[in-house]
Amino acid sequence: MTRQKPVKRPADEGKMSSENREKILTTALALFTERGFFGTPTSLISKEAGVATGTLFFYFPTKEELIDTLYRRIKSEAAQEMCRGFDTEKTAQSKIRCLGINAVVWGIQNPAKLKFMEQFAYSPFVSTTAHEEGMSHFHFLRNLVEEGIREGAIRDTDPSLLFCMMASSLSGLIAQASGTADPAEREKIIKEGLDFIWNGLKA
Amino acid sequence: MTRQKPVKRPADEGKMSSENREKILTTALALFTERGFFGTPTSLISKEAGVATGTLFFYFPTKEELIDTLYRRIKSEAAQEMCRGFDTEKTAQSKIRCLGINAVVWGIQNPAKLKFMEQFAYSPFVSTTAHEEGMSHFHFLRNLVEEGIREGAIRDTDPSLLFCMMASSLSGLIAQASGTADPAEREKIIKEGLDFIWNGLKA
Amino acid sequence: MTRQKPVKRPADEGKMSSENREKILTTALALFTERGFFGTPTSLISKEAGVATGTLFFYFPTKEELIDTLYRRIKSEAAQEMCRGFDTEKTAQSKIRCLGINAVVWGIQNPAKLKFMEQFAYSPFVSTTAHEEGMSHFHFLRNLVEEGIREGAIRDTDPSLLFCMMASSLSGLIAQASGTADPAEREKIIKEGLDFIWNGLKA
Amino acid sequence: MTRQKPVKRPADEGKMSSENREKILTTALALFTERGFFGTPTSLISKEAGVATGTLFFYFPTKEELIDTLYRRIKSEAAQEMCRGFDTEKTAQSKIRCLGINAVVWGIQNPAKLKFMEQFAYSPFVSTTAHEEGMSHFHFLRNLVEEGIREGAIRDTDPSLLFCMMASSLSGLIAQASGTADPAEREKIIKEGLDFIWNGLKA
DNA sequence: TATGAATGAGGCTTCATTCAT
DNA sequence: GATGAATGAAGCCTCATTCAT
Fold first, then answer.
1. Most buried of B102, C56, C133, D152, CB within 10 angstroms?
2. B81-201 domain in CATH 1.10.357.10?
3. Tens-digit pLDDT profile for residues D48-103
4. CA closest to A112 among chain B residues
5. C199:D200 CB<8 A
6. Whose CA is nearest the C1' atom of nucleotide E21?
7. What is the distance of C-alpha C50 from the center of its chain?
8. B4 in C contact zone (CB under 8 Å)
9. Chain D hits for A41, Cβ within 8 Å
10. Segments in B50-127 forming alpha helices (H)
11. What is the rounded average pLDDT of the residues C80-91?
12. Does B have 3 or more CB contacts under 8 Å with A?
């Protein structure tokens, strides 16, 4: 008898993702983005996912819980993607630029996920716990701004404000960049958008 | 074929024209921002507005139409407020700054209306006609950006992009500024936020 | 001062038919035939008639009463039309044939009224009083059948049955005859239909 | 987002397949004939059928669809009953008589179904598709009439007309025959009614 | 694990009717 | 007589959720 160290599962996404569970999540994401949380009955999700009504509620005791799960998953994925190639950067400035590019690229390549998160963020009903928890992934960005200020690269102002302005500008930039299919054009938009942001930030 | 016998209403309701219509709109705005479109039954709106269910549907054939009406009204009000004291400004730069201040002030003073518009903007179901119609109020802003470019005050880039970045930054700024109650602090945030934006825009 | 004998008004249709009252009745007939009793809101009737909601209820305290009035009016008109040129006929046979023709002609020329009466006859909800009262107009037909039997022209059978068979055959004939626009064709159908009926009745 | 907590149902409902569906149909038929389509709320149907509101709509997405289903079912049943013992008859005449008897007997024994069909036939709102589909069951009757004409037993006239007159006469006969409870009397009425029809048809 | 029939509270909307003007 | 805003009971239908199999 072989003993195995039970693998430490990251708190939330533990339930050994069965195939059905994944199908449900994928389908739900697509439908929620197209039709909104309230325009999407759970019955439709299960039908499109090819499972029974009961199956959905086996994995997610509540519609709300399904939404939350999706939110947490996407948020953490986004945070992760945002850090790609982060360690190799040296200055705060280059880190921030790297992060901005990552964010924009991710947003363009995952429009459904982005739309989902926006919808979630602006829906007055959803569980606020998930909301706050989601934000926590981005605290490192705050730190980064503070670091930039100490380095003298970023203006010495309330880091919260800078963080917030930066985040909202990025979301505008993604929206704009998603509007073109042409890669050259897109490249240009991204470059200039990031310039806008950096000019706003720099000392 | 008989339905009901309405109770005699107390004669204290000497209402002029569409007082009721206004009460409904006001109540709806408050409830929608608190509880969301879908968390707010029409029955609750009419109850809180102090009118009968039928009255709501007398003025707005559909819940959706009520929402749309609210949207159009707020959007046009916002556009109007944004232009306050606009004509006295000479340069594109001062105009844009004036406009920014107006936007932030309006946002801070009308949090419910702002929240409503955000919710509306990010709800995948709502009538797109109202959406587009709403945007039309802000075309003058695009023109303003173009004017600034011609003047040489704003950098020569895709005005759409600049407009979009500016708008999203402003919304972030409002959110941040709404966080403080202290007027001095708020003043400072606004000033620095507008600096951020202007630095992003300027040539 | 001239005294005038107040004209004796026939019990029901007394209310000095105002123009509005007539417009309402006419409109209601058209709408009921097209859309059914329940598919026709009183609000639609008054709108199409060009009067206010309240006006309809001024003349007809109830929707049901409006329907009944229409029914009584049409039924009595139909009965009257059925007797056209009746007195000049001598034998029961010729009387019956005359009546049959009248019925068919009226039915073809007043399809809306016919449809209304059928709908009324087969609606389980409508006031039965109007139902029975309507039938009273046709008692003379029963008498006619009995007369024919005494004359030896009609088979000696339960007159109720004969009356009933005759009536239902006539309604079938009208339906069939209404199907053609061509007058010659129609003439032929009517002739043969009446033959069918007379062959069924005769001794 | 939570709705309700269903009570534990007593385990006495070991239902096979769509027992509920049948209960709904049966109950609906009874109620519709008593109170009319519009006098019968779906809520009353489900209550009387002993099922939940949702159950009705699980089986019939619409009230109209429930009515249609009922119509189609009854119509096809009636058509089937009308052909009982049909094959053993040799001549068109005997076939028609057989069919007439079958029709009358079915009508007398199924007054609710008959009333339902009449109500359906004269309701201006109902789906015309079901209407036409229902009629298709009776095309063989048309053929029968044509056969009789070729045999020389039926007079040589538009078969559509004859079919139509026959059908309407039959419906009158059923109504009349249903009026008596006395079997001898009833027998007599049927016989004489069929004579009426045959005399109308024969060459 | 999976299924899907069953539940029933609750949502949106309709419409006959009233009544103050 | 005429108007039409106001009423509110009641109708149809949706949908998150349960549970026996």
1. C56
2. yes
3. 999 999 999 999 999 999 999 999 999 999 989 998 888 898 888 888 889 999 99
4. B124
5. yes
6. B14
7. 27
8. no
9. none
10. 53-59, 63-82, 92-109, 111-121
11. 88
12. yes
Query: Quick one: three-class SS letters along A142-198?
Result: HHHHHHHHHHCCECCCCHHHHHHHHHHHHHHHHHHHHCCCCHHHHHHHHHHHHHHHH
C15-61: CATH number: 1.10.10.60
State which residue of chain B sits closest to A117, comparing Cα positions. B122
Chain D contact present for A54, CB below 8 A: no
> Is it the case that residue A4 has pLDDT exceeding 60?
no
* Fold for the domain defined by D16-61: Arc Repressor Mutant, subunit A (1.10.10)
Quote the minimal CA–CA distance from A182 to chain B in Å.
15
CATH fit for domain A17-61, picks 3.40.1190.10, 3.50.90.10, 1.10.10.60, 3.30.420.180? 1.10.10.60
Q: If you average pLDDT over residues C152-162, what whole number do you get? A: 94
Quote the DSSP letter at residue C154.
B
CATH number of A75-201: 1.10.357.10
User: Which residue among A39, A168, A188 sits closest to B171, beta carbon to beta carbon?
Assistant: A168
Specify the CATH architecture of the domain C74-201.
Answer: Orthogonal Bundle (1.10)
D183-201 and C183-201 helices, crossing angle to 10°? 140
Amino acid at B18: S
Token readout for B89 is: 């400004």
Residue identified by tokens 């909202």 is A168
Query: What is the CA A135 to chain-centroid distance, rounded?
Result: 10
Confidence tier at D31 by pLDDT (50, 70, 90): very high
**D14 in contact with nucleic chain E (CB within 7 A):** no
Which chains are adjacent to chain C, needing at least 3 Cβ pairs under 8 Å?
B, D
The CATH number corresponding to D72-201 among 2.60.40.10, 1.10.357.10, 3.30.230.10, 3.90.1200.10 equals: 1.10.357.10
Retrieve residue C77's tokens. 């008109």
Nearest Cβ partner for C161 among D38, D157, D176 = D176
Report the alpha-carbon distance of residue D63 to residue C36 in Å, rounded.
Answer: 17
Q: Token pair for residue C188? A: 């032929």
Q: Which of A176, A178, A201 to mutate to test the interface with B (most CBs of B within 10 A)?
A: A176
Beta-carbon-side half-sphere exposure of residue D202 (alpha carbons within 13 Å): 12
